[in-house]
Amino acid sequence: MFITKCIYGKYSFQYVDLYRKFGYRSPFLRCFKNDFFTQILIFLNKDPEIKKFETSETIQYENSAHSLTSSELIHKKGLPFCFSTLVFGNYDIVFIGYRETLQNTKIKSVYIFANEVFIMGEHSFKELNKKTSGNILNEFTKKYISTSIEGIDKFFIKDHHQNYIHCSDNGFETSIKYFLTGNSVLKKIYSDFAISIAKSRFKYNEATKLEFADMF
Questions:
Q1: pLDDT (tens digit, 9 = 90+) per residue, 14-45?
Q2: Which of 31, 37, 70, 134 has the smallest number of Cβ neighbours within 10 A?
Q3: Closest to 133 in 3D by CA, of 173, 78, 164
Q4: How far, in Å, CA of 126 to CA of 133, rounded?
Q5: CA angle 54-154-191, nearest 5°?
Q6: What is the pLDDT, as a whole number, of residue 120?
């Protein structure tokens, strides 16, 4: 473990995975209580009843470049408060989370990487009243849409590169997820996720494609 830590760093899939192989629990706080599968299905299998907006602005997560790596993120923002890893299909998934403040409200920001490719980000807020939740959603979405979102608990925003934002407020937690699919590498990753889900949940062969609603 010492050698692995020296080569890949403490905050790496390789280090945490080796930790698990020796029978130890991860040394870090997990970033999500629910599973990655659920997070991805929100995007891959979009509910047709959820409102969709389109924007001419390019969707970015905290102005982060698509080329961002996990080591660059930690160098830039410092040590995270949560870090977790898992294997999903052929990909090593890494979650890196930070506590931040917006409009005097504490938020959690999580960056997600697949084989060191930055694929997704999420801001989440808990225990907010409707007014505060609405103000925060407006703050994050005003860059992309001018339409009022008052009274809308769930919606998508899509840009011309086919990146998506998914906003939801279930009364207990407000979540803003950024699904980044704006180039061929990212699209390939999400397509592979779809195939992995299909193989795990449905009878699947190369001649039969699982059709997710409006994936991109």
A1: 777 777 777 677 777 778 766 788 888 889 88
A2: 37
A3: 173
A4: 9
A5: 65
A6: 94
87 near 97, Cβ under 8 Å? Answer: no
Specify the 3-state DSSP secondary structure of 102. Answer: strand
Please give the helix or strand (H or E) that residue 33 lies within, else none: none
Residue 92 vs residues 100, 115, 140, 164, 189: alpha-carbon distances, Å: 26, 5, 29, 22, 11
Q: How far apart, in Å, are the Cα atoms of 90 and each of 42, 63, 185, 193?
A: 20, 28, 14, 9
**C-alpha closest to that of 30 among 77, 78, 81:** 81
- Residue 168: which of 137, 143, 212 has the closest Cα? 137
Q: Which residues contact 50 (CB under 8 A, 6 or more apart)?
A: 154, 155, 156
Tell me the angle at which helices 36-44 and 184-201 cross, rounded to the nearest 10 degrees: 110
- How does residue 64 score in pLDDT terms, banded at 50, 70 and 90? confident
In the numeric block, the tokens 């795990």 are attached to 200
Query: What pLDDT score does 27 carry?
Result: 72
- Give the tens place of pLDDT for each residue, 113-131: 999 999 999 998 876 666 6
pLDDT in tens, 195-213: 888 777 655 444 445 555 4
- Report strand pairing: 105-114 vs 164-169: unpaired
Q: How far apart are CA 78 and CA 159, in angstroms?
A: 30
pLDDT at 216: 60
The predicted pLDDT at position 121 comes to 94
